[in-house]
Amino acid sequence: MAGIDYVELNTLKDFYALMAASREVRARAVAAVLAGESIDPDIPTSLANVLASLEGVPEEGGRKRLALDRGRTIGLDMGYEIDETRKDLFYLEEGEETFLEMLSDYHPGFDEFVAGGRELLGGADLRCLVTDRDGTVNNYCARYLTSIQSVYNAVFLSRFARKVESPVILTSAPLDGLVAISVNPEGAFHYAASKGRECLDRAGRLRRLAIPPEKQAAMDRLNEELARLTERPEYEKFTLIGSGLQFKFGQSTVARQDINTSIDPAESESFLAVLESLVAGLDPDARNFRMEDTGLDVEIILTVEAEGEGLKDFDKGDGVKFLDDELGLNLAGGACLVCGDTGSDVPMLEAALTRSPDARAIFVTRNNDLRERVAGLTGSALVVPEPDMLVTILGTL
Ligand SMILES: [Mg+2]
């Protein structure tokens, strides 16, 4: 199989292509590690070339600069891509034990948090795992499509997945692209996306929560308008930062800012106002859509008719209930583990607690309000500050 050579990255497209190629190499490494086989020597060579290529991109004001198209350039934070490649090289060359020592040296409290996780999960006969991806079991990346899962991460998660009947990764991101950035062996996880409204199950079957035709028609019109709006030169930049423009199943996301504040705050605010008036125009009685603004992303979510609750926006708790029925997670039948890193993941835990006799939680956050919210729901919860800690708990249980 072809390895990866050093490339001079000039355009954003070059960068995306290199990261996509690194997925194939990483997947081979994961397969070998999980099978207990030795690693093809071209794999570390390829990853070293990926690292050198990324590091070789010229930096300006702390950002890597690449060409966008004729005459325009964009400044990017490549921290995730560079760090994870470095860690993968270290993992493959030095072995797991030394790698874990490195993580422990790097993150204060690492050993204590990992021990806490073992205590929480040790002895539990876990039937299922439902976990968010970004910021929870995957380190944060500035862009979804280049957030290629790292080798050590896939090895640790897949090892845990083998121990439970139903391992589910549940993200609010679209299904489109999720498999392309994942390095876990095929069939290791159910991949649920769009907050659980759509799922590629372990057997490769696509499952979707039906959306009533009139609601889908409203969604299609919204997406057409969003596409038209963001084609305008003054708004095009919003498709190129952070989450960009994402059409999900039952939900669309438009970035109005990224974690580096690449957009002038006043411009970001006025773009939000433009989006609000677009949605108000399409849905004057607020029957079809709810808007959620995270400050970075604007989510426009199709409402659902919930029993006894009237119209509400679909959350990840609704996703868990749908998947429990659709995939036969059998939450009612035993213990489960729910993992997340933001307030939007809390409904997953709430849903699991209503159905499972023994739901446990590990959240990754430094936010005290979120910590208290989780602790208020169950005593069987642990909060850790870093995704790598959670991944290590799962991988070394
Ligand atoms: Mg997250």
UniProtKB/TrEMBL annotation:
Residues 129-390 form the Trehalose-6-phosphate phosphatase C-terminal domain. Pfam families: T6PP_C, T6PP_N. Residues 11-100 form the Trehalose-6-phosphate phosphatase helical bundle domain. It comes from the Bacteria. This is Trehalose 6-phosphate synthase.
